[in-house]
Amino acid sequence: xxxxxxxxxxxxxxxxxxxxxxxxxxxxxxxxxxxxxxxxxxxxxxxxxxxxxxxxxxxxxxxxxxxxxxxxxxxxxxxxxxxxxxxxxxxxxxxxxxxxxxxxxxxxxxxxxxxxxxxxxxxxxxxxxxxxxxxxxxxxxxxxxxxxxxxxxxxxxxxxxxxxxxxxxxxxxxxxxxxxxxxxxxxxxxxxxxxxxxxxxxxxxxxxxxxxxxxxxxxxxxxxxxxxxxxxxxxxxxxxxxxxxxxxxxxxxxxxxxxxxxxxxxxxxxxxxxxxxxxxxxxxxxxxxxxxxxxxx
Length: 297
What we know:
Elements: H1 3-19, H2 26-51, H3 59-72, H4 78-98, H5 104-122, H6 132-139, E1 141-142, E2 145-146, H7 147-164, H8 168-177, H9 179-184, H10 189-215, H11 226-236, H12 248-267, H13 272-288
Antiparallel strand pairs: 1-2
Helix pairs in contact: 1-12, 2-7, 2-10, 2-11, 2-12, 3-4, 3-5, 3-10, 3-11, 4-5, 4-10, 6-10, 7-8, 8-10, 11-12, 11-13
């Protein structure tokens, strides 16, 4: 991982500390944590797909549909239905890419459009009531730490264990580096790629659950920015879009970078529209600096 990946959020943190007294307050730092939690969870799933050699543009729509389900379904069935939806979307993306050989960009773009339409049909107007226990899990404090910290920590540890300590991790890197070679060495490439897409969709569901609980209402468009933001975060974190390389630490650094930029611009009174433009520029720069040849070719 390039030192720049870790240096960028550190430099931003120091710059914001010098630029704004409000930024250094514990209240604001806790707010930054809450703001980046949904992005962190979704980006870790996006990173797993990217390491395997794919990309998933449907994460934002899955988050939106999760929000719609939580406020329209029976409270006892909201989370199971959302998780089942995530598994279905992941399977559709995975089989579309592997079995029918549709390019991941095209496949997940089609899924994104369809899922977003379903979300709007299900819950066309923002509002609704979020189950009380979810609200408590998202905004409460434990031992003086915000709940968002524990959501982030759990997601990071799970992704780290998957990629570095479980038998699945090396296989994901091998498939991303060279799927043909991985298949010749006995790795079930199709099943592994499908599993990565399912994990990505499930991470988007968890991110949608947290975001809906934090906001306290349902919104069928709340996930819209996350499709671009998750790709930007993982690219800033050094994950090659060609597949085969990347780390959880890199994704965490990329998410923190985006979170600090967003929070800093809010504190300094910069237009939120400029933030969206800056995200696009950062994505272009991050991808532009990546090497063009495929890993393991």
